[in-house]
Design goal:
Layout lengths: L1 H28 L3 H18 L3 H15 L5 H11 L1 H29 L1 H8 L4 H11 L1 H9 L4 H9 L6 H11 L1 H18 L6 H32 L3 H6 L2 H4 L1 H25 L19 E2 L4 E2 L27 E6 L13 E7 L4 E6 L5 E7 L2 E6 L5 E6 L4 E4 L5 E5 L5 E7 L7 E2 L11 H10 L1 H4 L14
Antiparallel strand pairs: 1-2, 3-4, 4-11, 5-10, 5-12, 6-9, 6-11, 7-8, 7-10
Helix pairs in contact: 1-12, 2-4, 3-5, 4-5, 4-11, 5-6, 5-9, 5-11, 7-8, 8-10, 11-12, 12-15
Subcellular location: Secreted, Extracellular space, Apoplast
GO molecular function, one term: manganese ion binding
Family: Belongs to the germin family.
């Protein structure tokens, strides 16, 4: 019997996944991606109209639907991901679940205690005695298992309210813990639609994750449901069979509970990368909004209202002129991010201009969150970087050449010609960061800078300017 139930569970999961995959394929085939994006924009527009009251209004409406038991309450969980994003959506659904469960519990307890006919009707149900036995035998453990199950939450709420289970310890706390797996699964299912909408803009890795985590969530839910089926079957075993069982069989329920808890922890671990990762943007462009107009928020900074976006948002003059070269290292680096150039917002890139005077250099530094692709606009430079083993890779670059500095590796640039050298760079992060040698080492009265400059310029005499790599580390 359990084997047949297991096959049915896997079959239902396979059918559900195939249906979602088919819907995504049809949407791509007939160009419904744009309509899906428009629907998402409409949902977010309604949310923006409510402003800070959007989340409380959603929680109140969802809690009320849970208490009134309509069949479409699950739609609220899917809509949460569209309205608020994955992590805020999970928080809103979680709050609504806890509030709705508490409201349903006290409504049900009042009804079943005031109206004996309602209690008699419930007792006539053949499954109600399983709930009563489970509560009597295991208390909060049974409630926790019930929350792990795929049963609608309002059925569990009202069924438990008819028993003698305590509210805080045996009902509320297991509800807080046990409702999270199903919330994570239901909210993340919408990311399948999000993957279809963002299929042309998101990275390959983000698209794979958008499909992978919901599928793993469905599979984990099927496994949890199967273990709960075994647990509930054990509740209806006659007492004489229980007395004749061995000590090992007597502990089957504890093993089932341990398995379910392990599945719960696994489910949380699977969804952790999805929670902490950035979702792809849901609109084409998003120039950063001025301080007083920040109402629409996506990846990065708040966005301007689409009706106020202009072509000038995507043009900048900040890289037109050389920087100040009157300094100790005779160079200037100007990194432009979305803070200075609003059109870069949510695009995941930043730009830089570097000017180096004769015998000048850009001191060794790294970008912890970005790789850098440098284009030599004028002059001649020596550019290089060190890997984690201290191996030097450097090249002499002329006008028009391109060189790449891998993410996080220390790199430098030196002017190798007899005139001003200018380079332009693109970094694949909206906030690449710069980690350089401390300012204290290069104070005006420090001798370290002069020694370092002499060491850097001595590369010319070592004949390393046109080699692809050097094995010896770069030390004093």
């Amino acid at each position: 019997m359990a084997r047949g139930s297991r096959r049915k569970g896997w079959a239902r999961g396979a059918v559900a996944f195939a249906a979602v995959a088919a819907a995504v394929a049809v949407g791509r085939r007939y160009g419904w991606d744009g309509e899906a994006a428009a629907a998402v924009a409409a949902f977010r527009g309604r949310r923006d109209a409510l402003g800070p009251w959007a989340a409380p209004a959603y929680v109140a409406a969802h809690a009320l639907t849970l208490a009134l038991c309509p069949p479409y309450a699950i739609l609220f969980e899917g809509a949460a991901a569209l309205l608020f994003g994955f992590l805020p959506g999970v928080a809103c659904v979680f709050s609504a679940k806890v509030l709705g469960a508490s409201l349903s519990f006290w409504i049900g307890r009042a009804i079943f205690r005031l109206f004996t006919s309602a209690m008699d009707w419930l007792k006539s149900n053949k499954y109600f005695h399983i709930v009563v036995k489970g509560v009597e035998r295991d208390g909060w453990k049974f409630v926790l298992l019930a929350r792990f199950s795929p049963l609608p939450s309002y059925i569990i709420n009202y069924a438990l309210s008819a028993t003698d289970v305590g509210f805080f310890k045996d009902f509320l706390l297991p509800t807080v813990v046990g409702c999270l797996p199903m919330i994570l699964q239901n909210v993340s299912i919408v990311s399948l639609a999000g993957a279809a909408v963002a299929s042309t803009t998101g990275s390959e890795k983000s698209r794979i994750y958008s499909y992978l985590f919901p599928v793993l969530g469905i599979m984990s839910s099927i496994l949890i449901s199967w273990r709960i089926k075994q647990y509930s079957s054990a509740l209806v075993i006659p007492e004489e069979l229980k007395n004749s069982s061995t000590n090992g069989k007597a502990n089957v329920d504890d093993k089932a509970l341990s398995t379910v808890l392990c599945c719960y922890l696994l489910l949380l671990g699977l969804f952790a990368p999805e929670i902490i990762s950035d979702s792809p943007p849901l609109q084409d462009v998003c120039p950063m909004a001025p301080q007083g107009e920040r109402k629409l928020f996506m990846n990065g900074f708040f966005c301007k209202s689409p009706s106020t976006i202009m072509a000038s948002d995507f043009k900048t003059l900040l890289l037109n002129h050389a920087g100040d070269l009157d300094n100790m290292v005779r160079s200037s680096a100007n990194i432009i991010t979305a803070t200075e150039f609003p059109g870069l917002n949510t695009l995941g890139i930043s730009m830089a201009r570097t000017d180096i005077a004769v015998s000048g250099a850009v001191l060794p530094h790294s970008h912890p969150r970005a790789s850098e692709m440098m284009f030599v606009h004028s002059g001649s430079v020596v550019a290089g970087f060190f890997d984690t083993k201290g191996k030097l890779f450097q090249k002499t670059l002329a006008e028009g050449d391109v060189f790449i500095f891998p993410r996080g590796l220390v790199h430098f640039i030196m002017n190798y010609g007899f005139g001003l050298a200018t380079t332009f760079s693109v970094l694949n992060s909206q906030n690449p960061g710069v980690v350089g040698i401390t300012h204290a080492m290069f104070a005006p009265d420090s001798e370290v800078a002069e020694g370092l400059m002499a060491r850097m310029l001595s590369f010319r005499d070592m004949g390393m300017d046109d080699s692809s790599s050097v094995d010896s580390p770069w030390f004093y």
